[in-house]
């Protein structure tokens, strides 16, 4: 690993036997500070432990690894490394878009996984062989930047509101569609306007359309 500091890790997988096996295989320099077997438990444990790295299974009860990433977006300093039996392109691309710094399959060896944890903790992106190609192809195929600082500061709920505004929905219609109050819609809109330094919903609509959020 590239740093001597002990890396604190939370292990998220719905199979207890697998978690036990991973802990046995990891080398020195890694400390498991928490475990979880579903989305709700993972969110709670990660918020409490604030690890350097989260080893995150893609398929979990309660919405999967993507749901964990969505619910924790911007709220913890932890970096996320997907560890999955799946090598399907849609799984890889989905969690990377969600914020994971890497993706390795469960065929990885203990020493390789220990090294991957250290590299992700230090800011590198780590992928099993050939999986990196999926990510490069996916981001090369779109005009939208892989990293959009303005978009990254908007929460998922604010994006939901923004998408409906861009489609011409009135505040009452948005409230009904998202099962929230009109007042909450107004709060979300005000928050987005402030974050993006825009003046009105027409500018918001143009901004959303430019990023294909509509």
TrEMBL record:
Pfam families, A to Z: GerE (PF00196), Response_reg (PF00072)
Response regulatory domain sequence ranges: 8-121
Biological process annotations from GO: phosphorelay signal transduction system; regulation of DNA-templated transcription
Residue span, HTH luxR-type domain: 147-212
Gene3D superfamilies: 3.40.50.2300
Molecular function in Gene Ontology: DNA binding
CDD domains: LuxR_C_like (cd06170), REC_NarL-like (cd17535)
Residues with PTM 4-aspartylphosphate: 57
Keywords: DNA-binding, Phosphoprotein
Protein name as it appears in the record: Response regulator transcription factor
């Amino acid at each position: 690993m590239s740093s001597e500091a002990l890396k604190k890790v939370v292990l998220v997988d719905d199979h207890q036997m697998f978690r036990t096996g991973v802990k046995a295989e990891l080398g020195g320099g890694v400390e498991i500070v928490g475990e979880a077997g579903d989305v709700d438990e993972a969110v709670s444990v990660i918020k409490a432990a604030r690890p350097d790295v989260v080893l995150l299974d893609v398929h979990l009860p309660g919405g999967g690894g993507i749901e964990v990433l969505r619910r924790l977006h911007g709220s913890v300093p932890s970096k996320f490394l997907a560890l999955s039996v799946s090598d399907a392109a849609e799984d890889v691309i989905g969690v990377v878009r969600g914020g994971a710094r890497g993706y390795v399959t469960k065929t990885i060896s203990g020493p390789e996984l220990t090294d991957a944890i250290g590299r992700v903790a230090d800011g590198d992106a780590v992928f099993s062989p050939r999986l990196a190609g999926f990510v490069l192809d996916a981001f090369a195929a779109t005009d939208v930047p892989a990293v959009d600082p303005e978009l990254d500061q908007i929460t998922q709920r604010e994006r939901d509101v923004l998408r409906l505004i861009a489609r011409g929905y009135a505040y009452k219609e948005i409230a009904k569609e998202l099962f929230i109050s009109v007042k909450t819609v107004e709060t979300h809109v005000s928050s987005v306007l402030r974050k993006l330094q825009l003046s009105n919903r027409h500018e918001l609509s143009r901004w959303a359309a430019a990023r294909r959020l509509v």
